[in-house]
Design brief:
The protein is α+β, with helices and mostly antiparallel strands and 696 residues long. The longest helix is centred in the C-terminal third of the chain and has 67 residues, at 471-537. The strands form six sheets. Strands 4-5-6-7-10-11 form a six-stranded antiparallel sheet. It has a two-stranded antiparallel sheet with strand order 1-2. The chain is 44% helix and 18% strand. It has helices at 25-31, 45-48, 69-78, 89-92, 102-107, 114-119, 211-217, 229-291, 298-320, 344-355, 380-390, 392-412, 446-451, 471-537, 543-581, 584-587, 599-611, and strands at 4-7, 10-13, 63-67, 124-137, 149-164, 170-182, 191-204, 363-367, 375-377, 418-431, 455-465, 641-644, 647-650, 656-658, 683-687, 690-694. The protein contains 17 helices and 16 strands. Strand 12 and strand 13 (647-650) form a beta hairpin. It has two domains: 62-121 and 223-415 and 475-588 and 638-696, Up-down Bundle (Outer membrane efflux proteins (OEP)); 124-164 and 169-207 and 418-465.
């Protein structure tokens, strides 16, 4: 009985082999196996030499790599051919990942790229040679040249140059040469050569006419299929905008990861201080317990021991971290909402992934920069103008609108009939030979007869054609109008979203700075509370004082973590304002520029540039419509100027720094002097295998 076997997606029945048949089960087995491509694995030998990751089990103190934010940005941009992300897009959907090659890929696309669109106007050369032997019986003597049994050797050589001009004119220069040897009794020569040259031109007067249309739609365009040079250029500008968005998001992710790591070091330092303080209390109670003195009761010793191990757990998590999402773009806000929940080791590997450094090399990256502590005040009007004029997404959408406008204008051309004028002029030559061979007489050779100009022909005409009703053209126009209306509606909603995100970002700056002041007061109050309770606990060891001491130590650890969390949130809020304004790359002094062309390209352009001039008023060549206002000023933005209606208006390139001020006095809470807001230079203390940053 046959058994059913499922292999891949096919379900078939296995039948026994007939007697004497060849057993091909080996080949059937191989055909069902998953094959591996013939390529080196891994692509980089250094990846196979990656060191084991740092973990809690390693007790040795690692070497530290001190990096500033500027150095981190330089490393990330220098090592990134693919713009990495923290959302796993590169593995899930690699085609959606941005890279430095994307603009070039779009520009060199042989279907829709700029060079492809320009190639439609290139001259073309074609030639073909054929030879045939005919041996046939004919019913009519006339068609056989006087014989019913025709024997013929016939050869043809055709060559032509063709070119389509930017005005839509089709030009052609052709040559036809024929050799004919047959047995027709009426022939003057047993074999003869015929050659002629044609010069042809076909120019559209209505549909397909004009430089503007041909640059938009390209020669041979059809309704709805618009792919001219202008469209190709706009597609390239869209690709450049998308690339800039990718670079901006990448820079934002690098800065997010940098300050995530800064917070991770501060967080583990706070947890270590709380653990060490609790350990000191536990040891004191444990000593009293062993001596049987008051204050060393078993419940007090267990309570202190429980809090010590609680802080030990938190310190271990803060050092190693858990594999959860960190701060990255579009996780609540465009620039990223702070999620300081990772540990030093996990966040440090995340930063290494973004910067292109080895995932593990025996060192630990440690941020050397401190977050911003000065209060920044933004001008809402300036921020709003910059956001609506410089956001990369809006610029990309405006190019899409320009593309739809060009397509609509080009499709309107198909509502006109196709009316072409055409002309052809021909020189003919006939002779016994193709070229002079020393003979004499009339029609001695075809070439001499050709240059003598004895036989010249010409043809001129007009051709008119159009579909009844222009249904396809009207459908293309309606489709273009709907696409244009949609793109404009999308731009309107995008501008609303930009204003919404900018409002959130500016508001977040004020909230974060207010929390910095509040958490600083909280941290100072918690430190004073711990100091006061410890002084009292030295003389009073009752249960109530122990509860207060342990609770105060926990509150101090929480207040330190909250303070540094608010500092990082404030730093990221400032960064997000720059992102929402479209000035994040300028803020980090990062400017995009295309690479230089080959030297030959510049020399080839010199002569056309010298011949270039404005068209005369009576020149039939039409001028193309404007599609761009000029070069995007991103590469000159350090001057802080933006073009507005032909004039330059100055905008601040960054927020205005204001010296730290005392936080607002709250009822029942004493005010803090401005000097107390200054954070002293941190010292370093060791914990396990990490040297954490600790502020006194």
């Amino acid at each position: 009985m046959a058994s059913l076997v499922i292999g891949g997606c096919l379900r078939h029945a296995e039948t026994p082999l007939p007697t004497g048949a060849i057993d091909n089960s080996h080949y059937q087995h191989l055909a069902k196996q998953i094959e591996i491509p013939d390529s080196p694995t891994p692509s980089d030998d250094m990846l196979a030499a990656t060191q084991p990751p740092t973990s809690l089990q390693k007790s040795d103190t690692p070497e530290y790599l001190e990096l500033s934010l500027e150095d981190t940005m330089q490393l990330a941009l220098a090592n990134s051919q693919i713009l990495r992300d923290l959302g796993g897009t590169l593995l899930r959907t690699p085609d959606a990942s941005k890279s430095r090659f994307d603009p070039s890929v779009i520009e060199t696309d042989p279907r829709t790229g700029i060079e492809s669109a320009l190639s439609a106007f290139d001259a073309a050369f074609t030639t073909n040679v054929s030879y045939e032997n005919n041996d046939r019986a004919l019913n009519n003597v006339f068609f056989g040249g006087g014989t019913r049994l025709l024997k013929q050797n016939f050869g043809t050589w055709q060559s032509q140059f063709t070119k389509t001009a930017v005005t839509g004119t089709q030009l052609a220069f052709k040559n036809y040469t024929q050799y004919d040897r047959n047995n027709a009794p009426g022939n003057q020569f047993p074999s003869a050569w015929t050659t002629w040259y044609d010069v042809e031109a076909r120019h559209p007067l209505m549909q397909g006419s004009g430089t503007n249309f041909n640059r938009m739609a390209g020669p041979g365009a059809q309704p709805g299929a618009i792919n001219g040079v202008i469209i190709a250029r706009i597609n390239n500008d869209v690709a450049l905008s998308e690339f800039e968005v990718g670079v901006r998001n990448f820079v934002s992710d690098v800065e997010n990861a940098y300050w995530d790591l800064y917070f991770a070091y501060r967080d583990v330092a706070a947890k270590v201080r709380a653990r060490d303080a609790t350990l000191k209390t536990w040891r004191r109670i444990h000593a009293l317990n062993e001596q049987g003195k008051s204050g060393g009761e078993a419940q007090k010793e267990a309570q202190a021991r429980e809090q010590y191990f609680r802080f030990e757990e938190e310190a271990q998590n803060a050092l190693h971290g858990r594999l959860i999402d960190g701060t990255r773009t579009n996780n609540g806000s465009t620039g990223g909402t702070f999620r300081g929940s990772g540990g030093v080791y996990v966040v440090e590997r995340r930063l290494r992934l973004l910067t292109g450094l080895p995932i593990s090399d025996g060192r630990l990256i440690r941020p050397s920069d401190e977050p911003l502590k000065a209060k920044l005040v933004y001008s809402w009007e300036s921020c709003l103008v910059e956001a609506l004029s410089r956001r990369e997404e809006l610029r990309r959408q405006k190019w899409q609108i320009k593309k739809r406008e060009v397509e609509l204008e080009a499709n309107k051309n198909f509502l006109m009939p196709k009316l072409d004028v055409m002309g052809r002029y021909r020189w003919r030559g006939f002779g016994n030979d193709l070229v002079p061979m020393g003979g004499t007489g009339d029609f001695n050779n075809a070439l001499s007869d050709l240059v003598s100009g004895r036989f010249q022909e010409y043809q001129a005409g007009v051709e008119l054609s159009f579909p009844i009703g222009f249904r396809k053209a009207y459908a293309a126009i309606r489709h273009s109008e709907m696409q244009l209306a949609r793109e404009r509606a999308v731009l309107h909603e995008q501008e609303r979203s930009v204003v919404y995100d900018l409002s959130n970002a500016c508001s977040e700056v004020e909230r974060a700075y207010a929390l910095v002041e509040t958490n600083l007061n909280r941290r100072m109050a918690a430190a004073e509370q711990v100091a006061a309770i410890e002084a009292t606990y030295e003389t009073e060891t009752d249960t109530a004082m122990l509860h207060l001491l342990l609770d105060a130590q926990r509150r101090l650890a929480e207040s330190e973590t909250s303070y540094f969390r608010s500092l990082v949130e404030y730093q990221l809020a400032v960064k997000n304002v720059q992102l929402e304004k479209g000035t994040l790359l300028d803020y980090n002094e990062i400017y995009l520029n295309e690479g230089a062309w080959p030297d030959k390209a510049y020399s080839d352009q010199e002569k056309p540039e010298m011949r270039r001039g404005e068209p005369m008023p009576d020149n039939p060549v039409t001028r193309s419509q404007w599609i761009s206002q000029g070069v995007y000023p991103q590469s000159t933005s350090p001057s802080g100027t933006l073009p507005t209606s032909g004039t330059e208006q100055s905008f601040p390139t960054g927020p205005t720094e204001i010296p730290p001020q005392a936080p607002q006095e709250l009822p029942g809470v004493p005010a803090v002097e401005p000097a107390s807001f200054k954070v002293p230079k941190p010292t370093r203390t060791s914990y396990g295998s990490v040297e954490a940053l600790v502020s006194p």
